[in-house]
Amino acid sequence: MHVLVRDNNIDQALRVLKKKMQREGVFREMKQRRAYEKPSERKTRERSEAIRRARKLARKQAIREGLLPAPPKKKLPERKPPLPQVTVT
């Protein structure tokens, strides 16, 4: 996994790295590997994850087909206008 550091901005690079790791599921996998998981528990977890994915896919399909109402869209907060530039003469 690669992250570019631009203008020595380490904070931004760390944010990008964490977001990439979150998307890849690294944190979830690290949490699972902290303790031993029995094979039966693993099968149960994987089965429930598969069911959750299938339900989510079916829900999205039903929304697309118009069988279910779409969830309300989140309202973005309004941005404040930028402060005027002050020139000292």
Automatic annotation (TrEMBL):
Residues 32-89 are annotated as: Disordered. It holds the Pfam family Ribosomal_S21. Coiled coil: none annotated. Gene3D superfamilies: Ribosomal protein S8 (1.20.5.1150). GO terms for cellular component: ribosome. Keywords: Ribonucleoprotein, Ribosomal protein. Residues 32-52 have a biased composition (Basic and acidic residues). It comes from the Bacteria. The keyword Ribonucleoprotein applies. NCBIfam families: S21p. Belongs to the bacterial ribosomal protein bS21 family. This is Small ribosomal subunit protein bS21. It comes from Bradyrhizobium elkanii. The gene is rpsU.
